[in-house]
Design brief:
With 79 residues, the protein is of the alpha+beta class. The protein has one domain. The protein has four helices and three strands. Strand 1 and strand 2 form a beta hairpin. The longest helix is centred in the middle third of the chain and has 10 residues. It starts with a strand and ends with a helix.
């Protein structure tokens, strides 16, 4: 699986996911936004990409890869 990186930021109380590598920027451009939703990340994951979040420990990023997708949505809601 290919690695793809994103960064998460808070903006006026909303959790936003920004691309953090060329491949991620291409996906954002394809959907016509500067940010991506959890649904977009789910679709990218289903295409075979390992999603990594910049600023998280390697252990936490590994946890994303090993858990059910609902965990990721829950994480974004809690972040």
């Amino acid at each position: 699986m290919q690695k793809i990186q994103f960064k998460i930021r808070q903006n006026y109380g909303k959790t936003l996911v920004y691309p953090d590598c060329i491949e991620a920027e291409i996906f954002a451009e394809m959907v016509g936004n500067k940010t991506l939703s959890a649904k977009h990340l789910q679709q990218i994951h289903f295409l075979g990409f390992n999603i990594f979040i910049t600023g998280l420990s390697e252990k936490d990023n590994k946890h994303f890869q090993d858990t059910h997708w609902e965990f990721f949505q829950h994480f974004l809601d809690q972040y």
